[in-house]
């Protein structure tokens, strides 16, 4: 559990403290996720709701791995920029999806820590493996839908120049562009809210443990 706590601290710093990811934090995050996935396969680690959330958090870094490997392949084989416009947008959307999944899962872990600290008995029915798996699945589905919308918007933007002015593609482009812009604004404010809530939760937990 100490290793899992260190991993959570690393992920909190990476996604909820740092304003943007960098090469060092990304590399350490990938190493930590790989180690955590291996660690969770051990029979010594009991299957609890927290470990289910941490496992889903670690698996989210697969998206980062795909993006990093693909970018290295593009640079190695010197692929032209024009032919990689669509893949580049996809890889960027995968990184965005990873960040959003990680922030939501970290917030779920923080909320569970809050329930364990202040409502251990009352919240026992909520803190089940089944609910944790369901929560993780819902988060993945929602963020996958978000990623699909962003990718469709990028695709329509790339093809809008060659489309006729009154074609249905133009109407679809305006709709997807508006929806994507609204969703980006929503996720931006949601990210600020999650950071604030996480700070408040751990502030309460820290002073509660100090008083004890």
From TrEMBL:
Keyword set includes Transmembrane: yes
Subcellular location: Membrane
SUPFAM superfamilies associated with the record: Family A G protein-coupled receptor-like (SSF81321)
A biological-process GO annotation: positive regulation of Rho protein signal transduction
Record carries keyword Cytoplasm: no
Keywords carried by this UniProt record: G-protein coupled receptor, Glycoprotein, Membrane, Receptor, Transducer, Transmembrane, Transmembrane helix
Residues passing through the membrane, by range: 12-40, 94-114, 134-152, 181-203
Gene Ontology cellular component terms for the protein in this record: plasma membrane
UniProt topology in membrane: Multi-pass membrane protein
UniProt GO molecular function: G protein-coupled receptor activity
Domain called G-protein coupled receptors family 1 profile: residue spans: 32-212
Cross-referenced PANTHER family: G-PROTEIN COUPLED RECEPTOR (PTHR24232), GENE 5127-RELATED (PTHR24232:SF83)
Protein name: LPAR6 protein
Lineage, top ranks: Eukaryota, Metazoa, Chordata, Craniata, Vertebrata
Gene: Lpar6_2
């Amino acid at each position: 559990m100490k290793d899992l706590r260190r991993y959570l601290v690393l992920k909190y710093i990476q996604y909820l403290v740092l304003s943007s990811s960098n090469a060092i934090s990304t590399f350490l995050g990938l190493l930590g996720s790989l180690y955590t996935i291996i660690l969770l396969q051990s029979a010594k680690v009991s299957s609890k709701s927290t470990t289910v959330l941490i496992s889903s958090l670690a698996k989210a870094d697969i998206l980062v791995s795909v993006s990093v490997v693909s970018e290295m392949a593009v640079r190695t084989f010197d692929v032209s920029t024009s032919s990689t416009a669509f893949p580049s947008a996809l890889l960027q959307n995968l990184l965005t999806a990873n960040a959003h999944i990680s922030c939501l899962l970290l917030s779920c872990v923080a909320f569970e820590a809050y329930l364990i600290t202040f409502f251990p008995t009352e919240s026992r029915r909520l803190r089940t493996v089944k609910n944790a798996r369901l929560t993780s699945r819902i988060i993945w589905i929602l963020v996958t839908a978000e990623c699909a919308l962003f990718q469709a918007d990028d695709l329509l933007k790339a093809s809008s120049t060659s489309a006729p002015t009154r074609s249905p593609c133009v109407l679809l482009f305006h709709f997807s562009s508006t929806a994507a812009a609204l969703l980006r604004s929503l996720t931006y404010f949601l990210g600020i809210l999650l950071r604030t809530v996480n700070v408040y939760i751990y502030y309460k937990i820290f002073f509660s443990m100090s008083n004890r």
